[in-house]
Design goal:
Layout: H1 3-19, E1 26-30, H2 37-45, E2 49-52, H3 55-64, E3 73-75, H4 84-87, E4 93-97, H5 100-109, E5 116-120, H6 137-146, E6 150-155, H7 164-180, E7 185-187, H8 194-199, E8 204-207, H9 209-212
Parallel strand pairs: 1-2, 1-8, 2-3, 3-4, 4-5, 5-6, 6-7
Length: about 220
């Protein structure tokens, strides 16, 4: 991975998004398990944000990359309440919020006003995936607003088996929920299912391997 390869990858991804009919789709570079240089490369290459899954990596990279060299940081992994304190002040958008306890802890630890969250929804029904049920979206959205948090939208992860029919159905469900609840952001789509996500109305894709290459082993 170097600056040239990442910049070329961003151009290729933007083209894929355009060919799928996407306009104004944000590109989040998923930099988990990569070094802090991924943050710098992503910014120069023109990504809109970086996404991280592990609290320890977020803290480490934030200590190595100056604010001026950073994109907005999105936390996209399954989140534990006891990790939130160390992430406050680094994470700009909390994407994987799926229960009231997380909302409460974020509100407690942040200034609340302007703190941005996306609610993760399990639209595939897979037991190993995080996310609230579709029926819980309204209740969680209201709870977040009551706590003073800003609900930007919803996020979801496609099916593990990557079946295109199941993927399309899941993404269509998420887009419908976004519209039903009057939200703006619909975060769905990764390297393998980006086109389907964009066709179904994604406003934000989260791409790792197609941007940075094969992942090294995680160090949490």
């Amino acid at each position: 991975m170097d600056q040239r390869s990442v910049s070329e990858a961003v151009a290729a991804l933007r083209n894929r998004i355009t060919l799928a009919g996407g306009t104004n789709v944000a590109l989040v570079g998923v930099s988990k398990t990569f070094g802090s240089e991924a943050w710098r490369f992503a910014k120069v290459a023109g990504c809109d944000a970086v996404g991280e899954n592990y609290a320890q990596e977020v803290v480490q990279k934030a200590g190595e990359v100056a604010l001026a060299d950073r994109l907005p940081v999105h936390f996209i992994g399954q989140l534990q309440s006891n990790k939130i304190k160390q992430l406050v002040g680094i994470v700009d958008v909390w994407q994987s919020i799926d229960r009231l306890a997380l909302l409460t802890e974020i509100a407690k630890r942040t200034s609340r006003s302007g703190t941005q969250v996306l609610l993760q929804v399990n639209v595939t029904g897979e037991g190993d995936k995080g996310g609230c049920t579709p029926a819980q979206v309204g209740e969680l959205s209201r709870a977040a607003r009551d706590l003073g948090l800003e609900v930007l939208g919803l996020m979801a992860v496609g099916p593990t088996n990557e079946d295109p029919i199941v993927t399309r159905s899941a993404f269509r469900m998420l887009r419908t929920l976004v519209d039903e609840h009057g939200l703006q952001q619909c975060s769905m789509g990764m390297t393998g299912d980006l086109e389907i996500a964009v066709e179904e109305g994604s406003t934000m894709v989260r791409v790792g391997s197609a941007l940075f290459g094969n992942r090294p082993s995680p160090h949490r």
